[in-house]
Structure formats: structure tokens, C-alpha cells
Amino acid sequence: MTQYAAAVARYFEAWNATDPEVLAKAVADAWTEDGTYTDPFTDVRGHEQIASAIAGTHAQFPGYEFRQTGTTDGHHAVARFGWELVSTTDGSAPVAGSDVIVLAEDGRIRSVLGFLDRVPPTA
To answer: Can you give the residue ranges of the SnoaL-like domain (predicted)?
Structure first.
């Protein structure tokens, strides 16, 4: 497994954690202490804020999990990959996007820039 694939695997472990203690550990394993996550709706820094953003997503989409689409592509300390938010009951995927991550020397994520390619319609 490449350093990029390993970092992305830890990223998905964090995004799919729903227990608060498991989530806190997964975020610490995936991100540096001052790591960031930015997408069109969220701009957070540090383990606590990242964990809170993930928990908020699970509150909004209970019964869904994040799954990687395609493969991870990386060079230098940068990688990109696609993902979907998939219902564990019916397989629907109302949200999809792609992320770009920058890795620190220890292999953890320094920053994430998220892009949303598909979002559910708003009422």
C-alpha cells in the first residue's frame, strides 16, 4: 500500500466512525494536530473541530457511510480521490465528491480540500 492509499484508508476510517471515542482516535490517526478540512460548507482546524464536522455529517445522514470511488492518485505529498456517501440500507448515494489531501512528513493529513460533485436537492 502506498503512503497515499494508507492516508486515504485512515481518512475513510475517520469519516465512517460514529462512536465518539473511536472517531476521536481515528481523527488523531488520520490528521496532524493542526490539520484542516475545507469543503463548500465547512472550514475547520484541529482534531476536535474535524471530529465535530464528521459527527455533524452523520447526524444529517444517519445510516450512511463514505466509500471511495476509483483509485487514489498521488505525487509528492499530495493525493486526490473520489468518494460517495452511500446508504447502508438501499445503496443510494445522494452525495459524491472528490478530495485533495496534503500529507505531513509522518504520513498524516495536513489539509483536505473537498469538492462536492453531487448533492441532494434542497427544498
So the answer is: 8-111
This prediction's pTM: 0.94
20-30 and 3-15 helices cross at what angle (nearest 10)? Answer: 160
8: in domain: yes
Residue 42 lies in a domain: yes
For the chain, the domain total comes to 1
d(CA 100, CA 82): 9
Looking at residue 69, its amino acid is T
Q: Would 123 be classed as within a structural domain?
A: no
User: What residue has cell string 509522518?
Assistant: 106
Are 74 and 88 spatial neighbours (Cβ–Cβ below 8 Å)?
no
Dist. CA 78–CA 31, nearest whole Å: 14
Query: What type of residue is 62?
Result: P
> Could you report the per-residue pLDDT of 57-84, keeping only the tens digit for each?
999 999 999 999 999 999 999 999 999 9
Segment 42-53, tens digit of pLDDT: 999 999 999 999
